[in-house]
């Protein structure tokens, strides 16, 4: 049975007459009477009987009206959800992000998403492995990645989102920590380094080694850590220095002094599937871009 006919039955029951329901529905009385007879023919049951000067539902009519009210409400909710989804206002979105991003503008962007898109089921996955983030987008496990070193693949679309200096996080009291000026790259050869294991974050590891080669120094790796907190704890324990995105200074680790590395920067990219058509992913990218632009 068409939803329109269910709506007619509800209107007749609520108005108590064909004439009242016809006015409400903007139909003529003969048209609505024909539609009611058609419903009764389809169902094989009398739905309304005369009661005084109006109509009252029969037992079968009461069942129909009760069910029709629920069906019509569900249909209206479904239409609303479809419209919101088409506008990128509802749905599920899984975002993977580099740890440095959350200490920078990503935190503000996510706060805005929660505020402006309360119907969105936002799932966040922190990762330190750039290759895993990019491959996760390709495989559909993530809708969007905010990462430093995206994989080169024609199936991925990327956009530069945020740039910040690389910083040398030094043990407090180390001679290199005394100057507020940016440290030269040659400083990487003047102190042991604590870095990511290559199997955890190969591209970040390679980036640090490349900086050492660019400075003409041979890195001395004293320890490895699998999280930013571990790396900074090792720095505080005077194992050496860590090269991290500058935004990690927001963690304010006791015993650690950050000093920017001269002539370096790291870039966060937005990464998504090139053939992505979900309006929610497009809206998320727009919010992220606006937050950085307004910052």
TrEMBL record:
* CC per GO annotation: protein-DNA complex
Show the GO MF annotations.
DNA binding; DNA-binding transcription factor activity
Keywords, comma-separated and alphabetical: DNA-binding, Transcription, Transcription regulation
Where the record annotates domain HTH lysR-type, the positions are 1-58
Q: Aminoacyl-tRNA synthetase: present as a keyword of the record?
A: no
Do you know which SUPFAM superfamilies this protein is assigned to?
Answer: Periplasmic binding protein-like II (SSF53850), Winged helix' DNA-binding domain (SSF46785)
Is DNA-binding a UniProt keyword of this protein? yes
Recorded protein name is HTH lysR-type domain-containing protein
Which source organism does the UniProt entry give? Streptomyces lydicus
